[in-house]
Design a protein that fits this description.
The complex is a heterodimer of chains A (336) and B (304). Chain A has nine helices and 18 strands. Chain A has a six-stranded mixed beta sheet, sandwiched between helices. In chain A, helix 2 packs across helix 3, helix 2 packs parallel to helix 4 and helix 3 packs across helix 4. Chain B is mostly helical. Chain B folds into two domains: 55 residues, no CATH class; 218 residues, MetI-like (MetI-like fold, Orthogonal Bundle), CATH 1.10.3720.10. In chain B, 72% of the residues lie in helices and 1% in strands. Chain B has twelve helices and two strands. Chain B has a two-stranded antiparallel sheet. In chain B, 30% of the residues are buried. Classes of the chains: A alpha+beta (336), B mainly alpha (304). Chains A and B meet through strand 6 and helix 2 of A and helix 8 and helix 9 of B.
Chain lengths: 336, 304
């Protein structure tokens, strides 16, 4: 068996004149929690739907566990999907929804019941078996959708913004739970979201998509510490983009320090400027500094008690912004 | 549900606020009453009360000598309906109504499905117009069109002759009634079915195939159950419209084509037996009530 659960090769998808996915290639490893992250219209959902088999690529191919499934219809692929709107069957109760895939595959009634029970246990929905979807809360529906997918033990589970409709607190709880379930069942998860925090919190690796192409693939730490393009630097967290010496640099706001202009040099890179704006945010304070060289920098400092300096800076103050050489990341291709 | 969403923000700050709030609620109530009075009057005075009067009339009788109505309650009319030619007429009517309903359902389903889920938006609008346009034509004109198709020298016989087949000779038979009814009521089946099929979210069909179901399985276990309310709504139209019609049998029917409607008509105008006509009228009502109860039993209204 191949190491890859999913291979995507040079896949292109057009809707009319609109190229939605433009030559994407991907390798997703078995057992991985893989996230496709991007703004709406970046092609992430279309790519997911092509892996599921709901859309056919105009060019390129898709392999599942080493097998070419490009021409195979959705119902013959070993994947299951958790839909954004959950897509629960309204005329069936919770158990019937969860058992649906097993009934289709003619699994015996007794085994069906047992497996459905186990799946409902896993998503903590015991006791709601005979409810209709309309009688459930959003969070409960989300869990039914998850149980209905994992009960089939698919090779790959596809999740299309599954937490998008939940409120923030429930979403954060479900993030932890989803990750735990993924570890427990060991199924490869492909997760689509536009929420970078969600992607960071759960993923083994993230593919950041923009305009139908992948800008960067890497572990959460990699993409944050070493953004490959200005888009990634701005989409994952916030970043200061500086053009210096013919190269384009990314500087994270929290890696910058402020000191008085006449402070002795520390050996770090530094640039003088003037404070334009100070925004107090409780846990931290955000400064906008206008550098003498012309650029604006965002600097974020946590409001620790020892950081007495933070209280002293005010709009109009002359300051020195400094940073470690290793925190300035040169970004590729874009400029060179 | 998030409990925070239910918090009322209408708490009045001052007593003056309370007063104005109360008076606005009062005028709101008067407005509602004003708007509801005409339709409720119409419903109770014209509709419910005439139904009740008809039900009472059904228990009166006709004096054989004078031809006057005797205002004394008796079940004689229902005895008369249960004997003679009436059971055959009722049986024929129900059978025909059922046949027409099944025929329309079979024709309408694929048509409505294509309209709702396959056709482009433009084609969908054109098809909808094509379905609704015949409703603008006179009912009688459509029946006469069918007469000219089905009669001895009509288009149907002509076509069969030129294909070297024996003439079906459907003119003025129960078969002619079945064809004509099926044609005339077809839009009433297509429109509600179209509505029900259009409301099925596409993601449900994706989900079904994602869970391994073939198109046929999805059709049987997802599409048909979710289209059932539309099918029932349509069948209520086709069934009850056939049940109450008396013009089509007169024009395209033959010697043995008397339906309940014709029996009522004859008793009302030819025989002048108003009580018997009223008693006969309760038959289709009773059948429809039974039909709705069965439909409810099968969960046809659950996902409405």
């Amino acid at each position: 068996m191949s190491q890859s659960a999913v291979e995507v090769r040079e896949v292109v998808k057009r809707f009319g004149d609109n190229v939605v996915v433009n030559g994407v290639s991907l390798d997703i490893l078995t057992g991985e929690f893989f996230t496709m992250l991007g703004p709406s219209g970046s092609g992430k959902t279309t790519l997911l739907r092509m892996i599921a088999g709901f859309e056919a690529p105009d060019a390129g191919s898709i392999f599942l566990q080493g097998e070419d499934v490009t021409a195979r219809p959705a119902h013959l692929r070993p994947v299951n999907t958790v839909f954004q709107d959950y897509a629960l069957f309204p005329h069936m109760d919770v158990v019937a929804n969860v058992e649906y895939g097993l009934r289709v595959r003619k699994v015996a009634r007794k085994e069906r019941r047992e497996r459905a029970q186990r799946a409902l246990d896993m998503v903590q929905l015991k006791g709601l078996e005979s409810r209709r979807p309309a009688q459930l809360s959003g969070g409960q529906r989300q869990r039914v959708a998850l149980a209905r997918a994992i009960v089939n033990e698919p090779a790959v589970l596809l999740l299309d913004e599954p937490l998008g409709a939940l409120d923030l607190k429930l979403r954060q709880e479900m993030q932890v739970e989803l990750k735990a379930i993924q570890r427990r069942v060991g199924i490869t998860f492909i997760y689509v979201t536009h929420d970078q925090e969600e992607a960071m919190a759960m993923s083994d690796r993230i593919a950041i998509m923009n305009g139908g192409v992948i800008e960067q693939i890497g572990a959460p730490r990699d993409v944050y510490e070493h953004p490959a393009t200005p888009f990634v630097a701005r989409f994952i967290g916030t970043s200061n983009i500086l053009d210096r010496g013919g190269k384009r640099w990314s500087l994270r706001p929290e890696r910058l320090r402020l000191s008085l202009v006449d402070a002795p040099p520390t050996g770090d890179d530094r640039a003088p400027g003037q404070i334009q704006d100070v925004v107090y945010l409780g846990m931290m304070t955000r400064y906008i500094v206008h550098l003498d060289s012309g650029a604006d920098l965002v600097v974020v400092r946590t409001n620790e008690g020892s950081d007495a300096l933070s209280a002293r800076h005010a709009p109009g103050d002359r300051v020195m912004v400094s940073w470690h050489e290793r925190d300035a990341v040169v970004m590729d291709h874009a400029l060179i | 549900m998030d409990p925070d969403n239910g918090v009322s923000t209408l708490e009045p700050a001052t007593s003056g606020g309370t007063k104005s709030l109360r008076s606005s609620a009062l005028s709101h109530r008067w407005g509602t009453a004003f708007l509801l009075t005409p339709p409720l009057l119409w419903f109770f005075v014209l509709y419910v009360s005439s139904l009740v009067l008809m039900l009472i009339t059904a228990f009166w009788s006709l004096n054989g000598f004078t031809g006057n109505v005797t205002h004394q309650l008796t079940g004689a009319n229902f005895h008369q309906i249960a004997s003679g030619s009436y059971p055959a007429i009722i049986g024929r009517t129900v059978l025909l109504a059922a046949l027409v309903t099944v025929t329309d359902a079979i024709i309408a389903f694929p048509f409505a499905y294509v309209m709702a889920r396959v056709a482009t938006q433009r084609a969908q609008r054109l098809l909808l117009v094509a379905v609704l346009l015949p409703l603008w034509a006179s009912y009688l004109a459509k029946i006469y069109a069918w007469i000219s198709i089905l009669e001895r020298g009509g288009a149907l016989n002509w076509t069969f002759q030129h294909l070297g087949l024996p003439s079906p000779n459907l003119g003025f038979t129960n078969g002619a009634m079945w064809l004509t009814f099926s044609y005339i009521w077809l839009p009433y089946m297509i429109v509600p079915l179209f509505g029900a099929l259009e409301r099925i979210p596409g993601s449900l069909l994706d989900a079904s195939s994602d869970l391994g179901a073939s198109s046929w399985w999805t059709f049987r276990h997802v599409i048909v159950p979710l289209a059932l309310p539309g099918l029932v709504a349509g069948s209520i139209f086709t069934f009850s419209l056939t049940l109450g019609d008396y013009v089509t049998p007169l024009l395209v029917g033959g010697a043995n084509s008397t339906l309940i409607g014709n029996a009522i008509y004859q008793n009302l105008l030819d025989g002048g037996n108003l009580p018997l006509a009223a008693a006969l009228s309760t038959v289709p009502i009773a059948i429809m009530v039974a039909y709705l109860l069965v439909a409810k039993r099968f969960g046809a209204f659950e996902s409405l």
